[in-house]
Amino acid sequence: MSEKNTGVTKVVIIGGGFAGLECARNLANKDGFEVTLLDRTNHHLFQPLLYQVATATLAAPDIARSLRGILEKSKNVTVFMDDICGIDIDAKKVSGTSGQEYRYDTLVVAAGAKTGYFGNNHWEQHTIGLKSLSDAYSVRKKVLENLEAAERTDDPAERKRLMTIVIVGGGPTGVELSGAFVELIKRSMRRNFRRLDVHSLKVILVEAGPRILPPYIESNSAYAQKRLEKIGVDVRTSTMVTDIQPHTVITKDEEIKCGAILWAAGIEAEGITAHLPCERNRAGKVTPEADLSLTGHPNIFVAGDLVFMKDIADKPVPGVAPAASQMGRHIAKLLLKEKKTGNSSDRQGFKYLDKGSMAIIGRSQAVVEFGKMKLTGFIAWLAWLFIHIMFLVDFRSKVGVLLQWSWAYISDAPGARVFVNKRK
Ligand SMILES: Cc1cc2nc3c(=O)[nH]c(=O)nc-3n(C[C@H](O)[C@H](O)[C@H](O)COP(=O)(O)OP(=O)(O)OC[C@H]3O[C@@H](n4cnc5c(N)ncnc54)[C@H](O)[C@@H]3O)c2cc1C
Q1: Which protein residues are within 6 Å of ligand 1, measured from CB?
Q2: With 0-12 CB in 10 A as exposed, 13-18 as middle and 19+ as buried, what is 10?
Q3: Most buried pick, 139, 245, 280, 347, via CB within 10 A?
Q4: 264-310 residue pLDDT tens
């Protein structure tokens, strides 16, 4: 039994994503806590809508907001933009590439995940992933640049290559990207070109497993595949990518020449987890104790996408935004309780509340699974729309995104079809 903790606890949080931000928000303006939130970017990013930035429907400010802005009323939270590259457990400090050090009593590592290539790291140079705003802009630029080149060229083989996009990975990101690109180019841009037939566009979605959307029930996977094929996506299941070369995806059966290779097949934990005093799995993920602290280190917590665990009900915790937020909240509540009672010996384990899964297919169809409720089609799309608007971080972006979507839907003309080139 320990005494009530009346001192100030310095909490350092690495990562202002769903987990880190939720933890900071729950400790905001609470007596006895001095919180430092560290992120290598200056914004919180709503990753579930990244594909809409990549496919030119939304612009960056619609899905990202400055961490300083979000936390401006949280007087005990200080935000630093820094790329954290070291954790010194003995000295209780972390260090950034800026050279700055940040001391902690309690550390929360919520740095998320990055694109992973299953050990084939050389594939990274030939593909574009989708984890950050800069990835989304790179995808958009690559595809729009290819269309420009395809309009210019007189070589039919080159035009065919430029008009082929291969998306590797049939999870929600691959499904959403492939549907959105077909709709954007074949439908919204159909009157934009004079020489190019936009219907020659080929979007190939390659999935190693036997069906797309593997975590979903089989009928929803089948529905998604049928809808994608109907709008013109070439879905290839049970197709393992064996190598990736410049402009070429190689599978067991063929070599696909293409203008863009988009990688949506895997993620791995951010590299900072290598500095934690614990084992990591092949994807670099960490398995904490039930309360989310590291074994033997009750003052170091992990949360979000870099965690690989089952909750106290023995349910695997998925790498999704609600799970990350819930973990961040769990840690904050636990710290608040300990501050009040001074007792750190009866910590509660983390329990994940499943909020369901959903994926959008093309312009106005989706699949939604929530417990026993399974929805497909337009109703599912409306549910998807409502939930994604609800969870955007502030009111301005909620209204802005709703207006953008409405306009894109009515006019069939997404407004963000612009990319910037460096001047030579
Ligand atoms: C394209 C895409 C679509 C998705 N769609 C959905 C969806 O529809 N529904 C859903 O629930 N989930 C979806 N997800 C997953 C969801 O976004 C993640 O589960 C969630 O973002 C995890 O939250 P997190 O806090 O763990 O990490 P993140 O949100 O990734 O935040 C991590 C933060 O840490 C920062 N960081 C990383 N390393 C460092 C470092 N060394 N130093 C400083 N800062 C660092 C990063 O800049 C980032 O801000 C999607 C993800 C992607 C990429």
Answers
A1: 14-20, 38-41, 47-48, 50-51, 83-84, 110-112, 130-131, 172-173, 270, 272, 304-305, 319-322, 324
A2: middle
A3: 139
A4: 999 999 999 999 999 999 999 999 999 999 999 999 999 999 999 99
Domain-terminating residue out of 265, 300, 316: 265
- What's the distance, Cα to Cα, between the start and end of the chain in Å? 68
Nearest alpha carbon, ligand 1 atom 7: 48
Q: Does 69 score more than 90 pLDDT? A: yes
Q: Which atom of ligand 1 is nearest to the CA of 96?
A: 42
* Alpha helices (runs of H) in 71-155, residue ranges in sequence order: 133-152
Domain for residue 68, yes or no?
Answer: no
Cβ neighbourhood burial of 132 (10 Å; 0-12, 13-18, 19+) = middle
Nearest ligand 1 atom to the CA of 322 is 11
Cα dihedral sign for 70, 76, 81, 86? negative
Residue 4 pLDDT exceeds 60: no
Structural domain containing residue 220: 121-265
- Centre of ligand 1 to C-alpha 251, Å, is 30
Domain of 294, CATH number, reads 3.50.50.60
Based on the fold, state whether residues 105 and 125 are members of the same structural domain.
no
Counting the structural domains of the chain, the total is 2
- Just list the catalytic residues: 176
CB neighbours of 359 closer than 8 A, spacing ≥ 6? 172, 175, 176, 213, 216, 224, 366, 367, 384
Q: Which atom in ligand 1 lies closest to the alpha carbon of residue 84? A: 42
* pLDDT score of 391: 83
Residue 18 CA to ligand 1 centre (angstroms): 7
Q: Are residues 251 and 142 in the same domain?
A: yes
Q: What is the pLDDT averaged over residues 307-316?
A: 97
Rounded to 10 degrees, the C-alpha dihedral 78/81/87/89 comes to 0
42 CA to middle of ligand 1, Å?
14
264 alpha carbon – ligand 1 mean position (Å): 14
Average pLDDT on 388-396 reads 79
